[in-house]
TrEMBL record:
Organism taxonomic ancestry: Bacteria, Bacillati, Actinomycetota, Actinomycetes, Bifidobacteriales
Any Pfam family matching the protein: CbiQ
Record protein name field: Energy-coupling factor transporter transmembrane protein EcfT
Organism annotation: Bifidobacterium choladohabitans
Subcellular location: Membrane
Lipid bilayer topology: Multi-pass membrane protein
Regions that span the bilayer: 12-36, 51-70, 77-99, 119-138, 204-229
Keywords for the protein's UniProt record, in alphabetical order: Cell membrane, Membrane, Transmembrane, Transmembrane helix
Source species, domain of life: Bacteria
UniProt cross-references to PANTHER family, sorted A to Z: SLL0384 PROTEIN
Main location: membrane
């Protein structure tokens, strides 16, 4: 497992968000998505990287098929699914990598390094703790419902949507409000809102691997910018 610097991850976030505003050919989009998936492998999450790579290949194949018969009704559905939804796939890839590998202390350190305002630092620190907590609560609710014989399988959840909403999603949403309030209080109690100087126990180092991956990312960004300008 090789660590990736928080600075490199910040570049990934900028790169993924920039892709929303440009339309690129499918081969280049696939190459960029493979680049994002490679970070999962680098940090030791090879299975997740392979799973996301398979998703990218499916979207690339679907986008190519959609271009074969774009005037038909099935073509419009394929365009919406594989081109429209696939447009946000880079954001999903980067978000999955960030949420799964980034510590809150690293993120707060970066935000303070770039002199981000307090109104941004506090919500982001709460957000990164919110989703893992909600996922843990969802798993607990599912185990409790399975013990009672309710929504034992995914098929049961699909066949009985009202029961699923009543016994799973309503308690989850109700608990999510309390979780957000508790996490905010915990962050403020730790002094995150204190405007004074802060120290960090996290060692943030920009290694040669970071330089290599950033250089590759900049090359892909340059290719995307060139293609976007050429198409315009």
């Amino acid at each position: 497992m090789r660590p990736i610097s928080i600075y490199t991850r910040f570049l990934l976030v900028i790169f993924a968000n920039a892709l929303i505003f440009v339309t690129l050919p499918t081969p280049l989009v696939l190459a960029i998505n493979i680049y994002f998936c490679s970070f999962q492998v680098i940090v030791g999450r090879a299975r997740k990287g392979q799973a996301w790579l398979l998703v990218c290949l499916v979207f690339a194949l679907g986008a190519s098929l959609a271009m074969v018969f774009p005037e038909n009704l099935p073509g419009h559905y394929l365009l919406f699914l594989f081109v429209g939804v696939g447009r946000v796939l880079p954001l999903v890839l980067v978000a999955a990598f960030m949420m799964g590998t980034t510590k809150v202390s690293e993120l707060v350190y970066l935000l303070r390094k770039i002199h981000a305002p307090q109104w941004l630092v506090i919500p982001v620190s709460v957000l990164f703790r919110f989703f893992p907590t909600v996922r843990h609560d969802y798993a607990q609710i599912r185990r409790a419902m399975k013990f009672r014989g309710i929504a034992v399988t995914t098929g049961d959840m699909v066949r009985h949507p009202m029961r699923t909403m009543e016994y799973i999603y309503v308690p989850l949403l109700n608990n999510a409000t309390n979780v957000a309030s508790d996490l905010t209080s915990a962050a403020l109690t730790r002094g995150i809102g204190d405007p004074g100087p802060k120290t960090s126990i996290q060692r943030i180092a920009f290694t040669g691997l970071d330089a290599l991956m950033c250089a590759l990312g900049l090359v892909l960004m340059g290719c995307g910018a060139y293609v976007a300008m050429f198409q315009a």
